[in-house]
Design goal:
Chain A has 146 residues and is mostly helical. Chain A contains seven helices and two strands. Helices cover 55% and strands 3% of the residues of chain A. In chain A, strand 1 and strand 2 form a beta hairpin. The chains are: A mainly alpha (146), B mainly alpha (453).
């Protein structure tokens, strides 16, 4: 029968081994040769867009790469689906945007900020998401196949 | 109650009740918005309601864990807390940080990272607060007469939870890297170290409620937390399938997250077996219901419902849909909310000296909240499956699919009303206990366990 010290050894040993494996896999994932995000394409515009994405808590309603609020559309391939002019128009709108009933506040972004947001979305849209991009945005896939 | 300083726990539990009530209110605001009734949009838009709802969940659970630690550690270490005054300072500062964060969310002040919306400036205050808490708890434990496995596992969970908060405070230029390390906090909390805290509280309650030998319970506690880390750490990989990192996570995350239900199964079997093995019975039936209930519902909510969409072949369709919300609600309820409500139910008669162990309202609160949330989870699950089919299989636009699932949110709101009634009754019963009293000290620590004939 298992003793208490054996149970403790199982806990400590198992934790140590899996933790080390986890750290190793993390390092492996971020090796430049394994990059799937086009990290080299991140410029000041993309960083500014990410900052705006966070400080306005866009993720509270929308989702990006499948992560977010599930209340408003997924935006991984939004530039492919909606195009730059429409995205900028929505972000710069002085009135509530509610094409399907659900409301998005008037963000009244400047031209520079909305361009940064578009740059951020374009960068996200090029990430290799292991196939998820094709499932989450069939419209983008259809467009790509035409 | 053996030690006067355990009374501190009452005020943490009271704050817990207030935050929990507020969380439910914001849940309703979100639910109504989903069926088109969003009259509060101007003041509380959906993303504000969501940030408040999820952050209140995290804060009231952490407040509950802290209250549990302030109650359990003196009893396990067999001494008073090293400083009651600093414990109150910690409580008040925790409440102030929480109020500041939630107020800020209504004025567009946040970080906008799911579950970690709290602004960076307040993050530093959280760190100071948690360090103070850990200082009090760990000093008490190591100055005490004994360091039991139950107390050590509980403290280990609390220390790891504090350490894991730090990766969430690092700024990354890349959304991929940001998301990767955000899960170090969120996943490794809820599917890792919080399970240690849950295991520690569960072991304490089982020792007290069943009369089973401490050595037996603590031996199996090690096995359970061992299984938790063995599967949960590499199971983080199920969040990495589709966020722009290497495909190796499809294999690693798939295999290890499929093992995660084992820890919850072991916890459920452990609790039920210890209850049956116990040769004595405790009069606090309400606490027993919440304790055994937590172990079973956590297995269903966190274990089975998590497993239902954890394999990459399934998750590619369910990732980022209401299926996740379905799993999230039942997992948090079973694993963490119920165990906090269990320790509160156990501690309150001992802190206040009012031996209300087995009353109608207490049982009604248990059943109404549990049946209510089960209904909510079923409604969310149906909405999620319909969403997946319409949006991910048939290629409908997001908003068109959302229109189709609206009716399931009506059902969810009806069930949420039942849930809220149960929660309201629990909170009402909590405050009916009255304040802590020193008279409780003069009495026996707790009622004698009665031998089962």
């Amino acid at each position: 029968m298992l003793s208490k010290s054996q149970a403790r050894a199982f806990f400590l040993g198992g934790t140590l081994v899996t933790f080390l494996a986890f750290i190793g896999l993390t390092v492996y994932s971020f090796m430049p040769s394994n990059d799937q995000s086009n990290h080299h394409l991140i410029d000041e515009q993309v960083i500014r867009g990410k900052h705006l994405w966070e400080t306005n808590n866009c993720m509270g309603c929308h989702s990006l790469m499948g992560e977010g609020g599930y209340y408003a559309p997924e935006l991984t391939k939004v530039v492919d689906r909606k195009g730059e002019p429409m995205i900028k128009a929505i972000l710069q709108s002085p009135v509530i945007w509610a094409p399907n009933g659900r409301k998005m506040g008037p963000y009244e972004m400047s031209e520079e900020d909305s361009e940064a947001m578009v740059a951020f979305f374009k960068w996200v849209g090029q990430i290799d998401l292991n196939g998820f991009d094709r499932v989450v945005s069939p419209l983008a896939k259809d467009k790509a196949n035409k | 109650m053996k030690y006067k300083s355990q009374q501190v726990a009452y005020w943490f539990f009271a704050l817990c009740m207030l935050l929990f009530a507020l969380q439910v209110v914001y849940g309703f605001i979100m639910g109504f918005a989903r069926i088109g009734m969003d009259g509060l949009h101007e003041f509380i838009p959906f993303h504000t309601a969501r940030a408040v709802h999820t952050n209140l969940l995290v804060v009231w659970l952490l407040t509950g864990f802290m209250g549990a630690a302030y109650y359990i550690i003196p009893e396990e270490a067999q001494r008073e807390l090293v400083s009651v005054k600093w414990a109150y300072v910690q409580l008040i500062s925790l409440a102030l940080v929480g109020v500041a964060a939630i107020t800020g969310y209504h004025f567009n002040i946040w970080e906008g990272r799911k579950f970690l919306e709290i602004p960076r400036e307040l993050d530093y205050l959280v760190v100071v607060n948690v360090l103070l808490f850990l200082g009090i708890i760990l000093t008490t434990l190591f100055k005490g007469k004994r360091q039991t496995t139950t107390a050590l596992v509980l403290c280990m969970g609390l220390v790891f939870a504090a350490l894991l908060y730090l990766p969430g405070m690092i700024w990354f230029d890349s959304q991929v890297t940001d998301s990767f390390f955000r899960w170090w906090v969120v996943h490794l909390w809820v599917e890792g170290v919080w399970e240690l805290i849950m295991g520690g509280i569960l072991a304490f309650l089982l020792i007290k409620l069943t009369g089973v030998d401490r050595e037996v319970i603590e031996k199996w506690l090690y096995v359970i937390v061992g299984l938790t880390f063995l599967s949960g750490i590499l199971g983080t990989g199920h969040h990495y399938y589709y966020i722009g990192v290497n495909k190796i996570w499809l294999v690693v995350g798939g295999v290890f997250s499929a093992l995660e239900p084992l820890a919850f199964l072991a916890m459920a079997l452990f609790a039920v077996y210890m209850y049956r093995k116990g040769e004595k019975t405790h009069p606090n039936k309400i606490a027993l219901f919440w304790t055994i209930g937590a172990s079973i519902v956590s297995f269903i909510g966190a274990g089975l419902l998590g497993f239902a969409h954890t394999l990459p072949q399934t998750n590619i369709y369910t990732h980022g849909t209401l299926v996740t919300a379905m799993h999230g609600h039942y997992a948090f309820w079973g694993a963490y909310a119920m165990i906090v409500l269990a320790i509160i139910s156990y501690a309150m008669p001992n802190i206040t000296g009012r031996k209300k162990f087995d009353n109608f309202n207490g049982h009604l609160a248990f059943w109404l909240s549990n049946i209510g949330i089960l209904g909510m989870v079923v409604a969310l699950g149906v909405a999620g499956v319909v969403q997946v089919y319409l949006e991910r299989r048939l290629g409908m636009e997001f908003m068109v699919a959302q229109e189709e699932v609206k009716i399931h949110f009506v059902v969810m709101l009806l069930c949420a009303s039942m849930f809220a009634t149960g929660v309201g009754l629990y909170i009402y019963e909590f405050f009916k206990f009255g304040r802590p009293t020193d008279e409780a000290l003069a009495k026996h620590d707790e009622p004698e366990l009665i031998a089962v004939s």
